[in-house]
Amino acid sequence: MSDEEHHFESKADAGASKTYPQQAGTIRKNGYIVIKNRPCKVVEVSTSKTGKHGHAKCHFVAIDIFTAKKLEDIVPSSHNCDVPHVSRTDYQLIDISEDGFVSLLTESGNTKDDLRLPTDEALLKQIKEGFAEGKDLIVSVMSAMGEEQICAIKDIGGTK
């Protein structure tokens, strides 16, 4: 036995992993996949036939769920791909600050103040106009791989 002490540095978060493995051949259109370390929604999948060297290949065309950039990847269908854990949570909009952050009401009654307004112009306009008119707005926040962004808005009626 050695007297050396071993220190292992963990790069992972405590709790759930940001992604899970899934066989490339089982990922379908409208599913999610990680391409170039970005969480993406699959918009097109094509599978090539088994070639001279064995594996059939899956060609994925996907859109980054946060930046809307188009990404592509080709993976042997028998290999595993990373699939992000994507969740959607609804919050009530309380306030919009001058610096572009929003204040949201969580289900537990606390506030969440670490989210910026979305970069999507149409959604941004809807939120700002609805808020200015005093509407009760519910925003849907998409989160995956440690990132969060407002992706949709609903008006639940009622004016002040």
Automatic annotation (TrEMBL):
Keywords: Hypusine, Initiation factor, Protein biosynthesis. InterPro entries: IF5A-like, IF5A-like_N, IF5A_C, NA-bd_OB-fold, Rib_uL2_dom2, Trans_elong_IF5A_hypusine_site, Translation_prot_SH3-like_sf. Residues 85-154 form the Translation initiation factor 5A C-terminal domain. GO terms for molecular function: ribosome binding; RNA binding; translation elongation factor activity; translation initiation factor activity. CDD domains: S1_eIF5A. NCBIfam families: eIF_5A. This is Eukaryotic translation initiation factor 5A. It comes from Carnegiea gigantea. The lineage of its organism: Eukaryota, Viridiplantae, Streptophyta, Embryophyta, Tracheophyta.
